[in-house]
Design brief:
Elements: H1 3-10, E1 15-16, E2 18-24, E3 27-33, E4 36-40, E5 45-51, H2 55-62, E6 65-70, H3 76-82, E7 94-97, E8 100-103, E9 108-120, E10 123-135, E11 141-144, E12 147-150
Antiparallel strand pairs: 1-11, 2-3, 2-6, 4-5, 5-10, 6-9, 7-8, 9-10, 11-12
């Protein structure tokens, strides 16, 4: 099968939209990611997949801590910024959660410590031990067939 067919098949799976953040030497680094999932309840683990060619890959290898912000309906501009689809950072506001940078207003925020990293082809799977979470009862921003979609 060719890459285009594979991408089309994967696009049929609706995903949430997250922003992965970490901080090194006082500078916040982030990227939009939809390859995110829960892994285990005991211990509480999550997984996020980062391309080896992404600038975030190097930061994640260096960092011991990171955060995941699950975006809500009104946060498409934030997702586009961290996906490098726009230079406009006027929509991006950080707050601190468990001493990690997270996206202000995200419907879920997870503070994680790196638990493991696994080589997976052209990506690395970063597994995080979840230390704490926040949850807002709001609709998520989702991604389907290469487009942002809104839930009610």
């Amino acid at each position: 099968m060719d890459d285009r067919l594979f991408k089309a098949a994967m696009g049929k799976f609706t995903t949430g939209v997250t922003v992965l953040t970490t901080e090194l030497e006082g500078t916040v680094h982030g990227m939009t990611a939809n390859a995110f999932m829960s892994v285990s309840l005991e211990p509480k683990l999550i997984l996020i997949s980062v391309a080896k060619t992404a600038s975030m890959h190097e930061y994640m290898q260096e960092a011991d801590q990171f955060a995941i912000s699950v975006l809500g309906n009104g946060q498409e501009a934030v997702s586009r910024y961290f996906a490098r689809q726009t230079e406009d950072d006027s929509e991006v506001s950080f707050e601190r959660f468990e001493d990690r940078p997270v996206i202000e207003g995200a419907i879920t925020q997870l503070a994680c410590t790196k638990y493991n990293e696994v080589d997976a082809g052209d990506h690395t799977l970063f597994i995080g031990s979840v230390e704490n979470v926040t949850v807002q009862d709001e609709a998520p921003l989702v991604y389907f067939e290469g487009k942002y979609r809104y839930m009610e």
